[in-house]
Specification:
The chain is α+β, with helices and mostly antiparallel strands. The protein has helices spanning 40-47, 66-69, 124-135, 148-151, 218-223, 252-272, 333-361, and strands spanning 17-18, 24-26, 33-35, 62-63, 72-76, 83-87, 103-106, 112-113, 116-117, 155-183, 188-211, 233-234, 244-245, 280-309, 312-319, 325-327. It folds into three domains: 17-161 and 207-250 and 295-331, no CATH class; 165-203 and 260-292, no CATH class; 334-362. The longest helix has 29 residues, at 333-361. The radius of gyration is 27 Å and the shape is globular.
C-alpha cells in the first residue's frame, strides 16, 4: 500500500515536498521551505489521540489516527493486487510496482503505523544517473531500456520492513583438514590430517531487516542492503510527502521465519570466521537457538523502476539512502546472434592457428 500526504505551503498554498538529504519540505511553486520540526507539533497532537488495540500485541507499530485516515483514499491495482494510499484529492494514479493504472477502492482501514523511517537522502536525479550507469557497456541490452521514457518512470517508494532484535546461542561442528607434502629421491608424498572442530557461543543481533511486502522480491530488497539504521528517525508523516509508501502485507509473525534464517546464517558465518589454520573447513552440524526476539516496523527509502520487455517484467531498485543500484537486465537475442556471427570468423581463425601450430610441433 502506498501513501502520499498533503502538506500545504504557508505562503502560496501549494503542496510541500520533502527534500532528500535535508530536514525541510519545499514548495515547488514559490520555493518556500518549512522545517520538519515545525510540523512536529501537529504530529504530536495526532499521537495523543487514543489508539485502537491490535489483536497481536507482539507485533510492532501503532495505529493511524482518524485524522490521518481522513486524508487518504485507498487505490487497488487489478494487475498485481497492490494497494496504494493517496491523498483524497487524487483522481488517478499508477501502481509503483507494475506501472498499471489503479482504481479507487475506498477508505484506509486496518493497518499499522510505522515506528521508524529512514528519510530519502538521494533524489530522483541521482536514481536516473544510477540507472544510466547500470546500463553502460551492456552491448546485448535492448535499445528500449536506454529510452528516456523508461528512465522517467522511476518512483520513490518507502518500503515496509520488519526489524528484528534477537539473541542466539550457537553450537557448531566443523570438519577440518591440514595437508603436509614432502619428497625424497623416488616419490612425492602428501599427508592429510582430519580434525573435528567445535565452536559455541552467544551472539546478539539488532535491526535484522525482513521485507514486509509480498510485491517486493526479498532477493531484490536484500541486494540493496545495508541501510544505516543510525540515521532512522521516529516516524512522522512529513517524511512521506511527495513519495509513495507501501503498506506491509506480510506480518511480523510471518516474517520471523526469514528473520530466523538470516540470523542463523549470520551466526554460522561468525563462528566459521573463528576457525583458521586449516586447509579446508566444512560445516557438519549446526544448532542455533533464538530467544528474546522483538520486532519493529520501519519504512526504508527505495527508488523503483518497473518495465516490461517481451511480456516479462523487470524491476530495478536503488537504495534511497546509499545509492546502491541493482536489477536484472534482459538480452536482445537478435543482437546476441549478430555478435556470434561477427565473432565466429575470429575464433575460427584462432582455432585454425592453434591447430596449425600443434601440427608443426608434432
Amino acid at each position: 500500500m502506498a501513501t502520499i500526504l498533503d502538506y500545504q505551503c504557508p505562503h502560496c498554498g501549494g503542496k510541500l515536498e520533502f527534500q532528500p538529504g535535508t530536514e525541510q519540505l519545499q514548495c515547488p511553486y514559490c520555493d518556500s521551505t518549512v522545517d520538519v520540526a515545525a510540523l512536529q507539533q501537529r504530529d504530536e497532537v495526532l499521537k495523543n489521540i487514543p489508539e485502537d488495540k491490535m489483536q497481536w500485541q507482539e507485533e510492532a507499530g501503532g495505529d493511524w489516527s482518524d485524522a490521518e485516515q481522513a486524508q487518504m483514499q485507498v487505490y487497488v491495482c487489478k494487475s498485481c493486487g497492490g494497494e496504494i494510499i493517496c491523498e483524497e484529492t487524487t483522481a488517478a494514479t499508477s501502481c509503483p510496482f507494475c506501472g498499471n493504472p489503479v482504481v479507487l477502492g475506498g477508505r484506509l482501514a486496518g493497518t499499522l503505523k510505522p515506528n521508524y523511517v529512514i528519510p530519502f537522502q538521494l533524489d530522483k536525479k541521482a536514481a536516473k544517473e544510477a540507472l544510466k550507469k547500470h546500463l553502460e557497456g551492456k552491448r546485448l541490452l535492448p535499445k528500449v531500456f536506454k529510452s528516456e521514457n523508461h528512465i522517467d518512470e522511476i518512483k520513490g517508494v518507502y518500503v515496509p520492513f520488519w526489524l528484528f532484535d534477537a539473541s542466539a546461542d550457537a553450537d557448531l561442528s566443523f570438519k577440518g583438514t591440514k595437508t603436509r607434502m614432502w619428497s625424497d629421491s623416488k616419490f612425492n608424498y602428501t599427508e592429510t590430517s582430519f580434525f573435528d572442530i567445535h565452536r559455541a557461543g552467544s551472539l546478539g543481533f539488532a535491526n535484522v531487516p525482513v521485507d514486509g511486502s509480498k510485491k517486493m522480491p526479498d532477493e531484490l530488497m536484500e541486494s540493496i542492503e545495508p541501510f544505516d539504521f543510525s540515521k532512522a528517525v521516529d516516524f512522522q508523516t512529513a517524511y512521506l510527502s511527495g513519495f509513495l509508501a507501501d503498506k506491509y502485507d506480510v506480518t511480523a509473525v510471518e516474517s520471523k521465519t526469514r528473520a530466523n534464517e538470516r540470523i542463523k546464517q549470520s551466526a554460522e558465518s561468525a563462528m566459521r570466521e573463528t576457525v583458521d589454520g586449516y586447509a579446508t573447513v566444512t560445516l557438519e552440524n549446526s544448532s542455533v537457538r533464538f530467544k528474546n526476539s522483538k520486532a519493529k516496523y520501519a519504512l526504508y527509502p527505495v527508488w523503483l523502476l518497473n518495465t516490461t520487455w517481451r511480456g516479462q517484467q523487470y524491476t530495478f531498485a536503488m537504495n534511497g539512502q546509499t545509492g546502491k543500484f541493482v536489477g536484472d537486465l534482459p538480452s536482445d537475442k537478435g543482437l546476441f546472434w549478430k555478435y556470434i556471427a561477427l565473432l565466429t570468423p575470429i575464433y575460427g581463425a584462432v582455432a585454425f592457428g592453434v591447430l596449425y601450430l600443434l601440427h608443426n610441433l608434432f
